[in-house]
Every structure is written in structure tokens, then in C-alpha cells.
Design a protein that fits this description.
- It is built from twelve helices and 21 strands.
- By secondary structure, the chain is an alpha+beta fold.
- Strands 2, 4, 6, 8, 9 and 10 form a six-stranded mixed β-sheet that branches.
- The chain starts with a helix and ends with a helix.
- About 30% of the residues are buried.
- InterPro entries: DUF58 (IPR002881).
Length: about 425
């Protein structure tokens, strides 16, 4: 029974003083309203007679808007007047986008499309929960509604990482072309590879002259060298409890994913093979390098559902996986947090074994709130305590950075918006020096 039936009963109650027997009037009015309600309920289209399907976007980038539509087909011989609710998880940001939402009118045998706009607020898979349809009778006195009638069409929207650092990619590619493209490196640096022989021109380093080739050609020839290719770059994402800390408006893990995607895109363009591991106390994602055209889409799709786990990271597991998978010398970029407890007890003991075979970079998101607390003039006692705690935290980070540097580890410590370009700058510098 709907509110309209209750209103009809209330209106009938106003006529009770006109009845010679009020109780008889109550019985008559209640019987009439009940009969009309039952008739209206019988005339309402059964929810099982409505067929529901769904189509629309399957993938959207975080911050963008997707459209997913529900199609309802009224298979009965009566017109459908219904109230429809298409429920998604709250983080999907679903908003109905059809006229008259959420009520509709569908003629017998007709179809109707009910689109919804989704603006997700989190990465990962955002599923549709339940499609609810309440079918009203022609008088609006009663409705039919049964659980899972019509059945909810399954649908999952995958929300990809935002990847805001892609705006830096053209600049990094331009630097890469200078290192290994239109301008060939002149002079031999450690670890660089021989490219070609060419005629000597004024300004060339005489140490690059190939005297044997010059004697055979009766001309002065110099060797040209190019930075190393086909090297291994391993991006390791720490998905333990420290990655769940929110720095600014997003978790630390999101900043690490953004930086890893930019590094992977640049390294693939440079001709290097990119592998990726996401580990806490178990391996969550393990991807090996593929062709340049498919690497970035595969990485983005694999990292989209990755979420922090509230467990301690097993750095022994990380080192074991890297040493087992990478037989050749590789550049290992570990995205983690510069926390004395986690790194001092977990990473530092196994670091010599890892650094002996691979070149290691530790990339960490720096929280600008710490710097802000140290520079804020103390106005209250609480401010002084907060500043002292911030100074201590920064001092601990410096000690961890120094301990890592003693093992030959390069540390990149930057705010979220600067981490990705600084990591790629470090990669380009090592590549130019032939130290990968």
C-alpha cells in the first residue's frame, strides 16, 4: 500500500460525521480502499516480466566520468509505471542521467534506456550492487517489488590510476633523444656500447680515433658510442602498511604507482625491459617485460585494483624474488617509505646481498606537512611539541638515507607531485653514465 491509499483513507474519514453509524462507515471505506488497492496491485506489471540488460563503459581513468546504461524491456501486455534505483558502491560516484529519474513509464513491449554517470573517487573495480524496480498499479495505490526481480545485470567498472605524471613524458623523451637518439654520445663512458664508425670532424675527441680502421680506410675514423640498451629495470611497489598512509589527498601507494608508470613508459621507449613487483607479505602483482606497445596498458590494468595491505612488508621476500627472477644486473627501483622501523629492521639487513648484484634506487614520498611544522612559528605549547616531533621524524629520515647511501643505494625523497619526474631524472642520469 502506498501513501496515496493512506491519503484516500484520510479523505474518507472526513465524511464519517455524515454517516448514521460511524463504525459502519469505517468498515465500508476500509473495504472500498482495500478492494481498490488489491485491484491496483493485480494490474501492476510483475517485476519478473521486465528484462534488464546493461551496457556502457568498462574502464575509466580516476577523475574522469563514465556512462553505464540499464536497458529495461517490458514484456507484459500492460504499461509499466515504475520506480527504478540502480545501486552502485558509494565510491563509484553514480548519478542517474535520464529524464524523470528515478520514475519511468514503459509501454507494452517497449524498451527504455536508463543511463547513469559514474565519477569514481577510488581506483579499483567498482561493481554494480543491485537494480531495484518497484512496479505501481494504474491508480498508484499499490506496488509490486520482489528481491532480485528483475535480476541485476552484472557489471564492473575498472577505475585505472590517474597517471597525472604522463604530462612529464614528452620532456623526458626529449632528454632521452639527446642521450640516445639524434645525438650520439661521443667518447666512451663506463658501460656504454659501441655504435658506429664515422669520419673525424673538428672538435672530436682524439681519444675516440680508431687507428686500425683509419689505416684500412686511409682516412681518420672515430668511434661513436651509445648508452646501454636492453637493460633490466625492476619496479618494486611496497604495498604494506606504510603505503596506506595518506599524503595530501591520496595514499602513498598512489603516488608510487604514478611514478612507476612514468618510469616504465620512459624505460620501454629507451629499449629497456621493465618488470614490476608489488609485494607486502606476499607477492600481489608480478609482471615481466613485454613489447613497448602493450607494456603500459598491461601495467595500468594490473595496478588498478592494487590496494594497501595493513601488514608488515617482508623485505626478505622482496629480495628473494628479485634475486630469483633477475639473473642479470638490473636497476631495481623500490618504492617504499623512509621509516626507520620498517627499513632498519627489514631492508638494511638484506641490502648488501641485493646491492652486490643490482643497482638499487629507493624512492619515497615525502610528506610536506613535516617541513611545514618545522617552519611554523610556535604560538602554543602544542605547536612546539608538533615541531619537535617533525624535527625528530626528519632526522630519522636523514639517518635512514645515510645508512642506505653507505651501501651504494640512491635515495629519491620527494613530495608526491615531484616524485615521478625525479625518479625518471635519476634513471636518465644513470643511463647517460652507463651505470645501469
Amino acid at each position: 500500500m502506498t501513501g496515496r491509499a493512506a491519503a484516500l483513507l484520510g479523505a474518507g474519514a472526513l465524511t464519517l460525521p455524515l454517516w448514521p453509524a460511524p463504525w459502519l462507515g469505517v468498515l465500508v471505506m476500509s473495504g472500498v480502499v482495500l478492494a481498490l488497492t488489491v485491484l491496483d496491485w493485480r494490474l501492476a506489471v510483475p517485476p519478473g516480466a521486465v528484462r534488464a540488460t546493461r551496457d556502457g563503459d568498462r574502464v575509466v581513468r580516476l577523475g574522469d566520468t563514465a556512462t553505464v546504461a540499464v536497458h529495461l524491456h517490458n514484456t507484459s501486455s500492460r504499461p509499466l509505471r515504475a520506480l527504478v534505483r540502480d545501486a552502485w558502491v558509494p565510491s563509484a560516484g553514480a548519478v542517474p542521467d535520464f529524464p524523470g529519474a528515478p520514475t519511468l513509464w514503459v509501454d507494452p513491449g517497449a524498451r527504455v534506456e536508463l543511463p547513469s554517470r559514474l565519477t569514481p573517487t577510488r581506483r579499483g573495480d567498482r561493481p554494480a550492487l543491485r537494480l531495484t524496480l518497484r512496479s505501481y498499479g494504474p491508480l498508484g495505490l499499490a506496488f509490486r517489488q520482489r528481491a532480485e526481480q528483475p535480476p541485476t545485470p552484472p557489471w564492473t567498472l575498472r577505475v585505472l590510476p590517474r597517471f597525472e605524471s604522463r604530462r612529464h613524458l614528452p620532456e623526458k623523451l626529449a632528454r632521452l633523444r639527446v642521450i640516445d637518439g639524434t645525438e650520439v654520445t661521443r667518447g666512451r663512458g663506463q658501460g656504454t656500447e659501441f655504435d658506429t664508425l664515422r669520419e673525424y670532424v673538428v672538435g672530436d675527441d682524439v681519444r675516440s680515433v680508431d687507428w686500425r680502421a683509419s689505416a684500412r680506410r686511409a682516412d681518420v675514423l672515430v668511434r661513436t658510442w651509445r648508452p646501454e640498451r636492453d637493460r633490466r629495470v625492476v619496479c618494486v611497489l611496497d604495498t604494506g602498511r606504510t603505503s596506506a598512509v595518506r599524503v595530501g589527498d591520496e595514499p602513498r601507494l598512489d603516488g608510487a604507482i604514478d611514478a612507476a608508470l612514468l618510469l616504465a613508459a620512459l624505460a620501454a621507449r629507451a629499449g629497456d625491459r621493465v618488470d614490476l613487483l608489488a609485494v607486502d607479505n606476499a607477492v600481489r602483482v608480478a609482471m615481466t617485460g613485454s613489447s613497448q606497445s602493450t607494456l603500459l596498458p598491461r601495467l595500468v590494468d594490473a595496478l588498478a585494483p592494487l590496494q594497501p595491505a595493513l601488514v608488515e612488508t617482508d623485505f626478505e621476500l622482496i629480495a628473494g624474488e628479485i634475486l630469483r627472477r633477475e639473473r642479470r644486473r638490473s636497476l631495481v627501483v623500490l618504492f617504499t617509505a623512509l621509516e626507520p622501523g620498517a627499513l632498519g629492521e627489514g631492508l638494511l639487513p638484506i641490502l648488501p646481498r641485493l646491492a652486490a648484484r643490482h643497482r638499487v634506487i629507493v624512492a619515497a614520498v615525502h610528506d610536506p606537512v613535516l617541513t611545514d611544522l618545522t617552519s611554523r612559528p610556535p604560538g602554543r605549547v602544542q605547536d612546539a611539541y608538533a615541531a619537535a616531533a617533525a624535527w625528530r621524524a626528519l632526522g630519522d629520515r636523514d639517518r635512514v638515507r645515510t645508512a642506505l647511501a653507505r651501501h651504494g643505494v640512491t635515495v629519491v625523497d620527494a613530495p608526491t607531485d615531484r616524485l615521478a619526474p625525479m625518479v625518471t631524472d635519476t634513471y636518465l642520469r644513470l643511463k647517460a653514465l652507463g651505470q645501469l
